[in-house]
Amino acid sequence: MENLQSKSVLNAQTPCQYSMVYGGKIRKFIAILLGIFLSLKLVEAKAPSQSADIYKFNTGVLSKVLSFESDQTPLMLVEGAIDTLKSQATAVATVNAVDLEKDVFLSKNQGLLSLLAENMIVREDAIIVVRILSKYLDVNTLAVGERFRLVFDGRSRFQSIRVSLGFAERLEVKRDDQGFFAVKYKNSTTLQSHYVEGEIAGSFYNTGLRLGLSHAALAKLNEILSYEIDFQREILSGDQFTVFYNTVRDDIDGSEIFHSIKFAELALANSIVTLYRYQDEKSGSVDYYHPDGKSSRSFLMKTPLENARLSSYYGRRKHPVLGYTRMHNGLDFGAPLGTPILAAGDGIVERASYFGSFGNYIRIGHRSGIQTVYAHLKGYAKGIKSGVTVEQGQVIGFLGATGRVQGRHLHYEVHKNGKAIDPLGLDLPASNNLTGKALEVFYKHIDHVNNDLSVYR
C-alpha cells in the first residue's frame, strides 16, 4: 500500500509543473503555425503596403518559412513578437516571383470590362485599360471568342494585357510606375512559297481544299481564271491543275496568310490555260498574263461570284413562280446565302436599290454601251450606291432571295445599248496586252518563275 502511494505521488504533477514541462513545446508549436500563417498571408497580399508592418520586401522575392538554409537573401522579420518566431524557425528560404500569363476569351453578350473583372482585375485598372484599348480598336464590336493575354506578377498583381490588331500586329497595354501605357508591335514576317498540283474530282473548289489550298488562295484562283473559263460548263472531273503561290508567315506565332498566286495552270479536255503574275515596273500595277504576254483579263468576267452553280440559262423558259413561259434575260447562279457578288467589269454604279420583282438590285454601266445587272441580293457591300466607281472583281453585294423568287440565287444580265443579250455568247476583247520593252521584261520574269518551279517539278 505504501509503495502504491509512493508511485502515485511520483506520477502526479501540479498544474504549475505541467505548464513548465509542456508549455515550452506548445509555445514553440504555436510560433511555427503563426509563421506559416503569416507567410501564406504574404503570398495573398496584393501589394507590399498590405504587409509592410510584418515584412520588409527584397525586390522580386517572396518568403516562406521552411526548415532548411537558403542561398538567397532572406526577408527580414520585424517587430518584437516576430523576433520570437525567427528564433524558433531554423531558416527562412525565398522563392523568386514569376510572371503568370493567362489567355482569356470574350463570351457571348460579354463586354471587355466584364471579362477583366471576372479575372480579378480591380475596377479602377480595368476602366483605364479599356479606355486605352478603345483608342486602337472598337471595344463595343469585339467578336465572341476574341482572345486577350493577361499578365500578372508573382504577387498576382495585374501587369499587362495583349490583343492582336491583325496579322503580325499586336497591342499591349502595360503597367509602370506612372500608370498604364500602350505599345504597338509588328512581328517580323517571311515570304513562303507553296506548290500544289492535282486532279479535279467533282468540284474544283472542294478539290483545292482537300489538297491544302486556303479559301483565300482559291478565291484568287477563281478570280484570275474566271476571265478565261466558265467554271460550270468547261471544268470536268479528271482535269489537271497546278498552283504556285506565296504566303506570308508570322515569325513569332507561326500563323500564315495568303499573299499571291505566282503561277497557275489548268489543263482541260481540249485546252490548257497558263497564267503568270506580273507587276509592271513603272506603274506598279499587277495582272495575270499568258506566256505570250496577252492579258487574261477580259472586258467582263464570265462568272461574277465564287464557287457558284449555273442553274438557269438565257432564253425562253417556264417561270418558276408565275407558272407560264416567258423570256429569261440572263443567267441564274446558285450559291450559299451571303456569297459575295463581284463586279463583272470596271464601271460606274447606275442604280443600287430595291427594284420590284428583282428585289435588291444593282446595275453597273461599262464602256462601249455595256451594262451588267445583279438581282435578288441579300444586301449591298459597304459604300455601294449610285454614282460610285467600281473595279472588276470588287465585291458589290451578297447573294440572297429578295424580290419574286422561290429560293436564293443571283440573277445576272448583260445589256448592250439597252438590250439584254446572252452573257455566255458575248465575245469581248482582252483589256490589256504587253508589247515592246514591257514584253521583253515579262519574258525574263517567266524564266525566273520557271526556274523556281523546276525545284518542285
Can you characterise this structure?
This is M23 family metallopeptidase. It comes from Microbulbifer echini. Keywords: Hydrolase, Metal-binding, Metalloprotease, Protease, Zinc. With 457 residues, the chain is α+β, with helices and mostly antiparallel strands. The chain has 4 domains: 81 residues, no CATH class; 87 residues, Roll (Nuclear Transport Factor 2, Chain: A); 101 residues, Nuclear Transport Factor 2, Chain: A (Roll), CATH 3.10.450.350; 117 residues, Glucose Permease (Domain IIA) (Distorted Sandwich). It is 22% helix and 35% strand. The N terminus is likely disordered. The protein starts with a helix and ends with a helix. Strands 15, 18, 19, 20, 21, 22, 23, 24, 25 and 26 form a 10-stranded antiparallel β-sheet that branches. Strands 5-6-7-8-9 form a 5-stranded antiparallel β-sheet, with helices on one face. α2 crosses α3.
